[in-house]
Write a structure and sequence with these properties.
Length: 255
């Protein structure tokens, strides 16, 4: 039963992560009339975004994600260990029926990666950086800081591998997303290429992760999507009669 209690406690910070992430690529706006001075969109300052990034990266550190052995020894299997435990708030396990701290750490890291490295958020960071000279905060800076944290020192190798795998997975998802801006894709590609180069010189697990990056990048094709154009004149014409835009109107007038 302790395993069910442990999961929401271990992920207790998830809502604070979502709140802090909103400062990155964030903007203030209201629905006041355009005649008022405070009706425009105002980007969050670079200093505030860096502060939020620093806080978020703490959730990926080894001292945050590590689980003391005095806790893991209490997370014993259920009485009927032959049956899978069906509970929504339990972490999955590759060691069934034993507790898997790697899966727990991977889930916690996923919470941060989903919030910090969401495609719309990175796109907004790029838009603000290119449009507002005062917003000197870029996607490259986010990836540099995140990569340095993820590939820093971890005392628990299982936790380290889980976090690093989650980071690479998130970057590959952003790279393959057709909604990712070209400039953001370029920054992600640069980060993946650099990590691939460094991982090749590491241990067997690192080389395996480098191979995964190579395979995914080689098999990935540049997303090609046509830009959607909003409906134009005449609004309300039948979609079935797109070759004759006035036919439906003529039909109505003849009645």
């Amino acid at each position: 039963d302790l395993a069910t209690v442990f999961a929401p406690l271990y992920l207790y910070h998830r809502y604070q992560v979502d709140a802090a992430a909103k400062f990155i690529g964030g903007a203030f706006f209201n629905y006041a009339l355009n005649t008022q001075d405070n009706s425009e969109v105002r980007w969050v300052t670079a200093a505030e975004q860096r502060r939020a990034l620093t806080v978020l990266l703490r959730t990926l550190r080894g001292e945050t994600l590590s689980i003391p052995s005095r806790i893991t020894t209490l997370l014993t299997p259920p009485l009927d260990a032959s049956e899978p435990v069906q509970a929504r708030e339990r972490f999955g396990s590759r060691l069934r029926p034993l507790f898997d701290r790697g899966r727990a750490a991977g889930a916690a890291a996923r919470v941060t990666f989903n919030a910090l490295l969401a495609v719309p958020r990175l796109n907004r960071v790029e838009a603000a950086n290119s449009r507002e000279p005062s917003i000197d905060f870029s996607v490259g800076e986010i990836l540099d800081a995140t990569g340095a944290t993820v590939f820093g020192t971890y005392e628990d190798s299982i936790v380290a591998n889980a976090v690093r795998d989650g980071y690479i997975t998130q970057l590959l998802m952003v790279f393959a997303n057709p909604d990712t801006l070209p400039a953001v894709r370029a920054s992600v590609f640069a980060e993946l290429s650099e990590r691939q180069r460094r991982l090749r010189r590491g241990n067997a697990i690192s080389q395996l992760l480098a191979r995964r990056i190579t395979t995914e990048l080689e098999s990935a094709s540049d997303p090609v999507t046509a830009t959607e154009v909003p409906p134009g004149s005449p609004i309300g014409s039948s979609a079935m009669l797109h070759n004759c835009w006035h036919c439906d109107t003529a039909e109505l007038l003849s009645r």
